[in-house]
């Protein structure tokens, strides 16, 4: 049961093909992790200090939108520490019993990676507190008057938690992490570097200008950059091209429905719905989700972070608002603020 759960790592919106690709393109060492120099430097220091003290690392919480490298960092940390990593996710651990199996199998210094840790059931979360704090778990045997609590000592381990929504994490859980890092969207230069590195691994030549063009349309996200690269590689292969040039990249991106801003159909649908159905907003997330026939969480986790960051969307106390940039994106003139009642 537990083994089954362990395998049940969620890869969010990824297909099986993406999953395999991601594994082969996943950086294994800190020096291969592009960008976030400050975080990389701090992790390097923590790892060095822990190794010198011959102690496990403190528990680490990684936050940020999907596809920015949280899972990769967890694997890199295990690799650099020379320890094993066990991966699971919040929704995969339904009962405290599932967690007992995982925790008791950990060796000294092992990394336990819990993706989407904000989705751990409350009861499991509470069970995790003493495990994180003093490497002990209490379990109850028997029932009723014969019930006994037994303390079980665990081997000291490091929990690496990943979350797309720090706001949903309870204060007691957050407080038990010693180290926090927030991963933000990547710059075009960093994404172009990732694309060039991935092309090397995939064995396809790519021109600098093509890498930059793909980077510009990757929504600041390495996972998307790699995914687009792979689609474009197929395109170049069918066209019998030896290398990906800018023109091929643009043609392939257009045929994939990725526009100049890097938006795909769903991004455009969100913005169009706010503009046409709600006069530019404000619109509450639940109404927006209902109009789009999507889950509110999908919009909050996957779609809107980049639209907010890139300045196409604004979040106000009354709901989401399409900005001037969003109107311009569709070739529309921006109505006067008082007409669309923006604020
Ligand atoms: P998350 O766990 O935040 O959803 P992942 O760690 O699964 O993101 O990253 C998705 C993919 O993006 C990885 O497989 C890897 O190929 C690539 N990637 C992410 N961050 C970086 C980075 N900083 N440098 C190089 N590749 C990266």
Folded structure, characterized:
- This protein has 343 residues and is an alpha/beta fold.
- It has 3 domains: 2-10 and 186-255, Helicase, Ruva Protein, domain 3 (Orthogonal Bundle), CATH 1.10.8.60; 36-182, P-loop containing nucleotide triphosphate hydrolases (Rossmann fold); 265-340, Arc Repressor Mutant, subunit A.
- Helices cover 49% and strands 14% of the residues.
- It has helices at residues 2-7, 16-25, 37-53, 70-81, 96-104, 122-134, 171-175, 188-202, 208-216, 222-238, 246-255, 265-277, 285-292, 296-309, 324-329, 337-340, and strands at 60-63, 85-89, 111-115, 136-141, 148-153, 158-163, 179-182, 205-206, 243-244, 313-316, 319-322.
- The strands form 4 sheets. The chain has a 5-stranded parallel β-sheet with strand order 2-3-6-1-7. It has a two-stranded antiparallel sheet with strand order 4-5. Strands 8-9 form a two-stranded parallel sheet.
- A hairpin with a 2-residue loop joins strand 10 and strand 11.
- Helix 8 (188-202) crosses helix 9 (208-216).
- It binds adenosine-5'-diphosphate (ADP).
- Adenosine-5'-diphosphate is lined by residues 22, 25-27, 33-35, 66-72, 162, 194, 222-223, 226.
Would you summarize the structure shown here?
The chain has helices spanning 2-7, 16-25, 37-53, 70-81, 96-104, 122-134, 171-175, 188-202, 208-216, 222-238, 246-255, 265-277, 285-292, 296-309, 324-329, 337-340, and strands at residues 60-63, 85-89, 111-115, 136-141, 148-153, 158-163, 179-182, 205-206, 243-244, 313-316, 319-322.
């Amino acid at each position: 049961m537990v083994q089954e759960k362990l395998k049940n790592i969620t890869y969010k919106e990824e297909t099986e093909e993406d999953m395999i690709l991601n594994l082969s393109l996943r950086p294994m060492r800190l020096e291969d992790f592009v960008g976030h120099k400050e975080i990389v430097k701090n992790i390097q220091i923590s790892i060095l200090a822990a190794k010198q003290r011959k102690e496990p690392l403190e528990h680490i919480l990684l936050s940020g939108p999907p596809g920015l490298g949280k899972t990769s960092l967890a694997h890199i940390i295990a690799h650099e520490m020379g320890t094993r990593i066990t991966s699971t996710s919040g929704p995969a651990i339904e009962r405290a019993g599932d967690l007992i199996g995982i925790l008791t199998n950990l060796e000294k210094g092992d990394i336990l990676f819990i993706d989407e840790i904000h989705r751990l059931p409350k009861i499991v979360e509470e069970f995790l507190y003493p495990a994180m704090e003093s490497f002990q778990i209490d379990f109850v045997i028997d029932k009723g008057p014969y019930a006994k609590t037994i303390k079980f000592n665990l081997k000291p381990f490091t929990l690496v938690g990943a979350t797309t929504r720090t706001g949903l994490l309870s204060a007691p859980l957050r407080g038990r992490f010693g180290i926090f890092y927030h991963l933000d969207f990547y710059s075009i230069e960093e994404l172009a570097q990732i694309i060039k590195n991935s092309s090397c691994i995939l064995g396809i030549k790519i021109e600098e200008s093509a890498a930059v063009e793909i980077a510009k349309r990757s929504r600041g996200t390495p996972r998307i950059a790699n995914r687009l690269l792979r689609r474009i590689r197929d395109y170049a292969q069918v066209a019998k091209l030896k290398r990906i040039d800018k023109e091929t990249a643009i043609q392939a991106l257009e045929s994939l429905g990725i526009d100049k801003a890097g938006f795909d159909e769903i991004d455009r649908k969100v913005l169009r719905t706010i503009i046409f159905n709600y006069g530019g907003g404000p619109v509450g997330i639940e109404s927006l989700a209902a109009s789009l026939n999507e889950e509110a969480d999908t919009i909050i986790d996957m779609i809107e972070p980049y639209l907010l960051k890139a300045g196409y969307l604004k979040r106000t106390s009354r709901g989401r608002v399409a900005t001037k940039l969003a109107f311009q994106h569709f070739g529309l003139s921006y109505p006067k603020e008082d007409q669309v009642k923006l604020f």
